[in-house]
Structure prediction request, 354 residues.
Amino acid sequence: MSGGELDHRLDRISARAAELRAMLSEALSGDEFVRASKELSELEPLEARIGDLRAAEAAMAEAQSMLADPEMHELADAELDQLRATLPALRQEIRIALLPKDEADERSAIIEIRPAAGGDEAALFATELFAMYQKYDALRGWRFEILEFTDTELGGLKEGIAEITGRGVFAKLKFESGVHRVQRVPATESQGRIHTSTVTVAVLPEAEEVDVQVNDADLRIDVYRASGAGGQHVNKTESAVRITHIPSGIVVAMQEERSQHKNRAKAMKILRARLYEQQRASSHASRAADRKSQVGTGDRSERIRTYNFPQGRVSDHRINLTLYKIDRVMQGELDEFIDALTADDQAARLAAQE
Prediction:
């Protein structure tokens, strides 16, 4: 987008914000008022940045006019240096704000974590990744509710699913989907050899009932007795629930709760999220966001990130970023990766517009 095209678009946004304020000052009907208020609230942050840009442009014009005055030349020159750095940054910030929004970005999310290649060691690392995301969410003040946590006899994780509630959760966590690889000496390794294992992570935007219409006739619901690791926590009643969505073939099993009703409600929440993501994948093919492409096969050669414990490093292979602070990362300090991934995605989308 050229500078002239950008200016023209910004002028239209400012005019639309003024038009909405005029509309809101009139006697609008309830629905019209809500729609106008919502649109204005979405435009106002951008309008404020446009105001900053216009103020900086006016200041630059004024400083340039002062250069001819010998008494003001030095002051004007210093101000121009500052403005030459500020203006491109403001324009870039506005270009990013104008990028098409992912409608799911502001939503809460469901995260699913499962061991892939590596047996017991993969299951143990899956437990640690589950805890890492729980700590990250706590740092951000989000609510982390475990929907399913099935463990192994050694304390590893067979399957972990959690609902993460907060504003903008999906925007922050969507780049975490994929294969996470760990390299370390397992506690069970007597020869001190480094093993490589993998864990799959899928992050799905949470879906409301209005997003996905699920017909009861399309569901097969089976109930059975819950079972735990090594016979632990076995429920003597048929409280576990398995829901099969026949048209898509998606199957969700839930046994975390002792109540069949609660397990069914949780399973439906996960089913809706998977169906919603499937719909998003078909309507946004370029994003290739269906669960299968998110997590791949779990093979050791596929990975988005590697956690190398002997070297104390974590490397994200999509953006070639390596941090030598694995302990802090495992404590939930993920923002350096997440911010860099977000910036990389924005840069790629900006480049696609040029």
